[in-house]
Amino acid sequence: IRVLYLFSLCLLQNVADHIPQLVQGVRGSQAQAEDLSAQLALINSSQNFLQPGSKMVASAKAAVPTVTDQAAAMQLSQCAKNLATSLAELRTASQKAHEACGPMEIDSALNTVQTLKSELQDAKMAAVDGQLKPLPGETLEKCAQDLGSTSKAVGSSMAQLLTCAAQGNEHYTGVAARETAQALKTLAQAARGVAASTTDPVAAHAMLDSARDVMEGSAMLIQEAKQALAAPGDADSQQRLAQVAKAVSHSLNNCVNCLPGQKDVDVALKSIGESSKKLLVDLLPPSSKSFQEAQSELNQAAADLNQSAGEVVHATRGQSGELAAASGKFSDDFDEFLDAGIEMAGQAQTKEDQIQVIGNLKSISMASSKLLLAAKSLSVDPGAPNAKNLLAAAARAVTESINQLITLCTQQAPGQKECDNALRELETVKGMLDNPNEPVSDLSYFDCIEGVMENSKALGESMAGISQNAKTGDLLVFGECVGVASKALCGLTEAAAQAAYLVGISDPNSQAGQQGLVDPIQFARANQAIQMACQNLVDPTVIVRLYVLSAATIVAKHTSALCNACRIASSKTANPVAKRHFVQSAKEVANSTANLVKTIKVQILRGHVLLLSLQLLLPAVGNLRTTQEPILVSAKTMLESSSLLIKTARSLAINPKDPPTWSVLAGHSHTVSDSIKSLITSIRDKAPGQRECDYSIDGINRCIRDIEQASLAAVSQSLATRDDISVEALQEQLTSVVQEIGHLIDPIATAARGEAAQLGHKVTQLASYFEPLVLAAVGVASKTLDHQQQMTVLDQSKTLAESALQMLYAAKEGGGNPKASHTHDAITEAAQLMKEAVDDIMVTLNEAASEVGMVGGMVDSITEAMSKLDESTPADPKGTFVDYQTTVVKYSKAIAITAQEMMTKSVTNPEELGGLASQMTNDYGHLALQGRMAAATAEPEEIGFQIKTRVQELGHGCIFLVQKAGALQICPTDSYTKRELIECARAVTEKVSLVLSALQAGNKGTQACITAASAVSGIIADLDTTIMFATAGTLNAENNESFADHRENILKTAKALVEDTKLLVSGAASSQDKLAQAAQSSANTITQLAEVVKLGAASLGSDDPETQVVLINAIKDVAKALSDLIGATKGAASKPADDPSMYQLKGAAKVMVTNVTSLLKTVKAVEDEATRGTRALEATIEYIKQELTVKNKITLHSMALKLLSSFPLISGTEWVDPEDPTVIAETELLGAAASIEAAAKKLEQLKPRAKPKVSVYPNCFFESNKADDAYSLYVGLLFVTVHDNGINNQKSASVSVPLGAALGRTYL
C-alpha cells in the first residue's frame, strides 16, 4: 500500500505539472479562437496530458481495493471513472483536431522559436541593465542541470526533424518541429535561469547570447525543413538542411559550454590534446636520465595520474567548482606522466620497443580524454542513463592503460609489477560498490551467481598459487597468479555490484523506472565495447591472430545485439519515420560489420588495413540499501582484504623467509575466503522474489481459510450480513479487485520465466488484493438471498485464490530464471487456470450486476479496452494483418448483431438487456485487443491510425448503449429511454460499418475473401436444405421442364467458375484489387451455379430422389471446395513463396479442380432417359465384341456398311456429336485445370516431378467420330437381335451386369 501511495504521489506530481499547460492552452484558445498557434498549443497540451492522466487512472484503480475507508474508496473509484471517461473523450477530440490542424504545426513551431528568440533578447537587455532576476524556485544548479538535460532533448528532436524532412513525411515533420519547439522553450527558460542566477555578468551575457544563437539557428532549420518537404529528393535542399543543422549543433555545444565548470573541463581537454602532439614526432629526443631515474619518475607519475583520475570521478558528485579543480589537476598530472613516458621511450633499445611505448602513451591519452568527456557529460546531466557507469568504465580504462605501460617499460623484481597493477585495478573497481543504483552489466541475477562461483574458484586457486610460489621462489608463476587473482577479484566485484543492483530494484519498496522504446544503457555499453575492440584491432602491437579474432568476435556480438534492438524498436514504434530510421541504422551497422569481418578474413595479420572498415563502423554504432547491504559489505571486505593480501604477498616475494609476514598473509587469506563465502551466501539468500513469494503464499493461504469458514457459515445459513455497505458497492469492489488480479497474471508469468527483478513487485501486489477479495466476496454472499448464488460466489472466489496459490508456487520455483525451462510449462499452465478462474467470476458478477441495471463495471471494461488501443504492440506480432482483420470482423459483426437484439429486447424483454450488454462488453474487449494489432500491422500507417480511431469511436458508442440498457432495466416502461437505446444501437451499427470500411480500405482483397467465404457458407447451408427436401421426395420443378433444358446453363456457369478459380489462385500474388475482384466474381458465379443445378435437380422429378441428392451433393462439394480455396487464398495473400500457406493453396486448388470435374461427370450421368439409354449401349461394346468373334466377319462388314449409310436416319435428335457443349466444356476444363496448376506452381516456386498426361475421360464415347457411333448402334441392334433369337432371361441378366459396371466406370 505504501508503494502504491508513493507511486501515486509521483503520478500526481506529474499530472500536476501538466495541468497548468492544459489550462493555459484552454484559456489561450478561448481568448484567440482564430489563432492557429493557440489552437495547436491546446491540442499539444491535451495530447501531452493523456499519458500521465491514463497512468493516474490505472494507479487509482489499482489502489481502490486497498483503501479500507469505504467512503474514500467509493469516491476514489468514481473519480477514476470520471477521469477515464474524460480522457477517452479528450483523446478522440484531440485526434480529430490534430487531423484538421496538423499540417500547420511547422508554421506554429517556427513562430514559437522566433518568440523565444525575442524573449532572450529582452532578457539580455535586462541583464545589461542589471534587472535580470531569477524566478521563484530557480537556482544555479537546478537551471544548469535543466539546460544540460534539455540540450540532449533538443539534439534528439532536431535529428528526428532532419530525418522526417529528408523522407518527405509532412505529418511527422510537423510533430518533430513541435517537439523541437517545446524542447527549445525549456532550454530558453533554463538559459535565462542560469544567466539570472550567476554572479558573473560576462558569463550571463555569454549564456544568453549562445542561447539566442541556438534559437536563431533552430528557426532557420525549421524553415529549411519546411522547404525540404516541398522537394524531398532535392540534393541542394538536403545539403542546406545538413549545413544548418551542423551550425545549430555547434551553437548548442557553445551554450552548454557556458555552464559553470564546463570551460575548465574544455581547457583540460585542450591541454591533453596539445600535450599529446608530442607523440606525433618521427624522432624522439634521446633520454638524458638513467634507466632507474626514468623508471622511478614514470612510476610516480603513474600513481599521481591514477589518483587524479579517481578525484575526477569523485568531483562529478559535488559542485561544479570541484570538477573544474579536479580536471585541471588531472591535466597537469597527465602532462607530467606524458613527459615521463616519452623519457622512458627514449630508453628503448630498438625502434620496435619505442613504437610500442608510444602506442601505449597514445592509448592513455585517448583514455584520459574519454574520462574528462564522461565527467563533463555526467556533470551536465547527472540523471542520464548509464552516465555513472560510463564514467567508472573510463576511469578503469585509464588504469588499465597505465598498467600496460608500466608492465612494458619498467624492470623490477619478478612479481612486483603484477602486484602494483593488481592494486591499481582493485582501487579502481571499488567505486562500483559505492552506490549500485544502475546496472553494471547485462548479467541476470542467476548469471551473477554463476559468475561469483566461477571467479571464486579461480581466486582460490590463484591464492594458493601465490602462497606456494612465494615459498618456492618461482616468481614468474607468482606474477601470473597475482594477475589471475586480480581479474577474478574484478569479476567478483562486478558480479556483486550487479547482483546488489538487481536486489535493490526487486525490493517491493523500490520504484522501478519506465522502460523506453530502446535501452540507452545497452546502446552505450555496446558502443563502448565495440570501440575498445576496434582500438585493439588497429593497435600495431596486436599481431596475435587469436587477439584479432577475439576482438572481431566482440564486435560481431555487440553489433548483432544492436541490430536486433533496432528491429525490436522498429516494431514497437508507430512512427513510420522512426521505423525507417531504426531499420536504416541496423542496415548500416550490419553492412559495416560484414565489411569488417570480410577484411579480417583477408588480412588477419595486417591490422592497419582494417581502418577503412572501422571508420564506417564506429559512426554507425554511434547513431545507433537495506537488502543490498550484506552483498556490498561482503564485497568491500573481500576487496580490502585482497588488497592487503597482495601487498603482503609482494613483500614475501622479496623476502620469503619472514615468518610474521607469512602469518599476516594467512590471516588475510582467511578473511578473503570468509568474505567470499559470505558474498555467495548473501547473493543466494537475497534471490529476488523468493521472500516475497513466501509472504504472499502465507497471505493467500489465510484468505483461503477465511473463504472456507464463510462457506461453512453459508451452508449452515449463519453467515452474518454486512449492514455497513450496499450490495451494489460490494459488487463493484469485488469486480474491481478481480479485474486488478486479472491484470497481474501475465506480468507475473513473464517475471517468473525470466525477469527476476520484477517478481517481488508483482507477487506482492497480487497478494495485497486477496484480503479485499475475501471481504468483498463474503459481503456479496451475505447480501445474496439465493443460497445457490451464495455458494457460487464463494466457490469461485476460493477457486481464484487456489489458482493464485498454484501460480505463486510455480513462480517461486521458476524464480525468474530463464534457464529453468523445466518450470516454464507449470507457470504457463497455472497462468491459464488463473485466467479461467477470473473469467468465471467476472461472468457471474456481470450477470448479477446487469440484472439490476448496474453497468458501471461494463463501462469501465470498455473504457479500459479503449485506452489500451494507444499502447505499444509486441515486438514480434504472432499474426499478420489478415489474421487480425478476420478476428476484428468477427467481433464487429457480433457487436452489430447484439445491438440489433438489444433494439428488439428493449421492447419485448427488457430484463434480458443485461446479458446482451455483458456480451457486447466482452466482444468489444476482444475487438479492441485485435484492433490494436490490426492497426499496428496495417500498411500504410494512415490506415492503421484510421482503424484505431474508428475502433475507439465504436467504444464510445458501446458505452452509451450499455448505459442506456442499464437505465432501461431500472425503469423498463420508460419510453424515452427506449427511444434513446434504439438510437444508440443504430449508432453502434453505423460505427461497426465504419470499422469494417477501415479494415476493407487496409486490405480490400482479404476483406473480399472474408465476405465471399461468408456468402459461400450461406450457399452450402441452402444446399443442405435442398437435400433435405429431395430426400423427402418433395423437390419438384415448377414448370414442365427436362434436365436437358438446364444442362447447357450448368456447363456454361461451371466454365465461368473455372475462370474465376484461375483468377482467385493467381490473385494471392497479385494486388489487393485483383484479389477482391476474383473473390467477388467467384462468389457470384457459385451462387448462379448452385441455382441452375438446383433447377436441374428439380427437373428430374421427385420420382428419382437418389439422383437429385447425388446431383446436389456434387454442387455442394464444389461450394465447399471453393470455400476452402477462398480461405487458402486469403491466408496466402502477400505471403512469400516458401510460406506453408502456399502449400495449402495448391492443395485447395487441386481439390477445386477435382470437384468441378466430378460435377460435370455427374451432370452427364443424370441426363434425360433417351441419352442415358444411348450411352448405355455404347458401354456394352466390349462385351458384345466377344460375341462377334464367332460370327461371319464378311456378313458383319456388309451390315455395317448398310448401317453407316443409314446413320442420318437412325441417329435422331438425341444423338451427341463432337460439337456438343459438353465436349467443349470438357476440353476447356482440362485447359483451366492446367492453368490453375500452373498458377499454384508459380506461387510456390516449386518443381514437382513430371507426371504422364492422362485424359480426364479416357473411356468417354463423346470423343469418337460418327462412324464409331454408327458402329456402336449396329452392335446395339445386334445385341437386340441376339436377344430376340432366344437368349433366355438368365443370359440377359448376365449381360446387364457388365452394362452396369461400364456405366459406373463411365459416369461415376
Summarize it.
Helices cover 80% and strands 0% of the residues.
Overall, the morphology is globular
Please provide the count of β strands.
0
Structural class: mainly alpha
Largest sheet: none
Radius of gyration: 42 Å
Number of helices: 46
The portion of residues assigned to helices is over 70%
Contiguous uncertain segments of 5+ residues: 1-7, 512-517, 541-546, 603-624, 1206-1216, 1243-1308
In round numbers, the mean pLDDT is 77
Report the portion of residues in β strands: under 5%
Termini separation comes to: 77 Å
Secondary structure elements and pairings:
Blueprint lengths: L1 H30 L4 H28 L6 H32 L3 H24 L11 H28 L2 H28 L3 H30 L4 H23 L4 H15 L14 H25 L4 H27 L4 H30 L6 H23 L6 H14 L15 H28 L2 H32 L13 H19 L6 H28 L3 H27 L8 H13 L5 H26 L4 H27 L4 H26 L11 H17 L1 H10 L1 H12 L2 H13 L4 H28 L9 H28 L4 H12 L13 H28 L4 H25 L3 H30 L4 H28 L1 H28 L12 H24 L4 H28 L5 H28 L7 H26 L3 H11 L1 H8 L4 H13 L1 H5 L9 H24 L21 H19 L4 H19 L1
Helix pairs in contact: 1-2, 2-3, 3-30, 3-33, 4-6, 4-7, 5-6, 5-7, 5-8, 6-7, 7-8, 9-11, 9-12, 10-11, 10-13, 11-12, 12-13, 13-14, 14-16, 14-21, 15-16, 15-22, 16-21, 16-26, 17-18, 17-20, 18-19, 19-20, 21-22, 23-26, 23-27, 23-28, 24-27, 24-29, 25-26, 25-28, 25-29, 27-28, 28-29, 29-32, ...
